[in-house]
Amino acid sequence: MENLREAIKGKKRIVIKIGSSSLMHENTDRLNLLKIEKLVRTLVDIKNSGRDVVLVSSGAIAVGRNAIGLDCKPSELPVKQACAAIGQARLMMVYQKIFAEYNSLAAQVLMTKNTVLNKTNRLNARNTFDELLKLHAIPIVNENDTISTYEIEQLNTFGDNDRLSAIVSAIIGADLLILLSDIDGLYTDDPNSNPDAKFIECVDTLDDTTLDMGKDSSKSSVGTGGMAAKLVAAKIATYSGADMVITNGNDIENINRVLKGESVGTIFKSNKIENFNLNSLID
């Protein structure tokens, strides 16, 4: 495992996913601006080191919900759409302002499932990402919830940004995906309910035993993903040729610890499958 961690230092194209719960204050579900500032500073520093970095950021619906004064997650689809439309604009405004303070460019990329299922759209998305990265911009990706939330009933969305971040990794040929979560990594069972659950530092192969450890265990009032979603993301990322790390997003410094090869989080070893059919894990 030490060699696997050491190899992370040489990764050149990195996707980082941060969930809503990692962006918000736990007690108020409002944006944690100090944490976002540290996240942006970390991303810019990665870029300045000569590596490509893409951020997949949740939070649009949660930010929109707060803007219109809702106390809990909206359940009606039109309300979700409205929250997403309001919140995405506000969230990007915050990102743009902080990126500008570090003399850096941020670019918004909103994706739908059709972007990936259609081969031409997928190629166009790859070309867009490549050009943005050449221009030294940092793409900030989210699902286009304003459109896609209606399609949830038809199961026509990514379902969560864990899977979306893995799809982005596959599309752009990333060699590392970091999932910032509300948990330290993968456990043999849900540690929220089982105190005897054991932490797993490294996963060489995603077999049935490992996949059975997935739990829909998100305990956040703003997030949507659980460990099951992260393991689907691990399949997409590792089969596409990227290593993946799940680590705790409560400490943004964990990003740097991962990139320094420190033993942080759970690392999933790349197991690239030639001619891997990405659509098979999206449908």
Automatic annotation (TrEMBL):
It is an enzyme of class 2 (transferase). It is found in: Cytoplasm. It catalyses: L-glutamate + ATP = L-glutamyl 5-phosphate + ADP. Keywords: Amino-acid biosynthesis, ATP-binding, Cytoplasm, Kinase, Nucleotide-binding, Proline biosynthesis, Transferase. Gene3D superfamilies: Acetylglutamate kinase-like. Substrate binds at S58, D145, N161. Belongs to the glutamate 5-kinase family. This is Glutamate 5-kinase. The lineage of its organism: Bacteria, Bacillati, Bacillota, Clostridia, Lachnospirales.
